[in-house]
Amino acid sequence: MRAQVVFATITGNNEAVADDLVAHLEERGVLVEKSEISQSEPEDLANYDLAFLVPYTYDEGSLPDEGLDYFDDLADVRLDHLVYGVAGSGDTFYEDFYCLALDKFEQQMEKTGATKAADLVRINLYPSPKDKERLAHLVDQAVLKVTA
């Protein structure tokens, strides 16, 4: 089983989320590639069984600037075989705009025909031990859907 974890980060929080996902996947024997969103292409997801997208939300619900092309290109890719998850950090200070990019990426992934592993995981700032448990659950659900 192969997975790709694609992340965008400014503060380093989302790279920590990506690292946690990678660790959980490796614990389950999954071969994982982690890549920064500006160095990734949605078409590459066709080479994987699992994908995890980890975007940040900028300003009032904006997508990461470095991920705009990736986001737009997702709409043109068919990934019927893929199981995906979306997770990422934000700041609850922004209230109504908290982690909105996660919802947008989830909606974009739905257009690809990929199968959602589980509910997205919103993390306030840096991942806590409880958040790491939620990320592990997301990975478990994704692996189960691939092997089912």
UniProtKB/TrEMBL annotation:
Q: Which Gene3D superfamilies match?
A: 3.40.50.360
Leader sequence range is: none
All copies of domain Flavodoxin-like, residue ranges = 3-143
As cofactor, the record names: FMN
Where, by residue number, does the polypeptide cross the bilayer?
Answer: none
Q: This protein's superkingdom? A: Bacteria
Q: Which UniProt keywords apply?
A: Electron transport, Flavoprotein, FMN, Transport
Q: Which InterPro entries match?
A: Flavodoxin, Flavodoxin/NO_synth, Flavoprotein-like_sf
Kindly give the PANTHER family that the UniProt entry links to this protein: FLAVODOXIN 1, FLAVODOXIN 2
Similarity remark: Belongs to the flavodoxin family.
- Primary role: Low-potential electron donor to a number of redox enzymes.
- Report what the protein is called: Flavodoxin
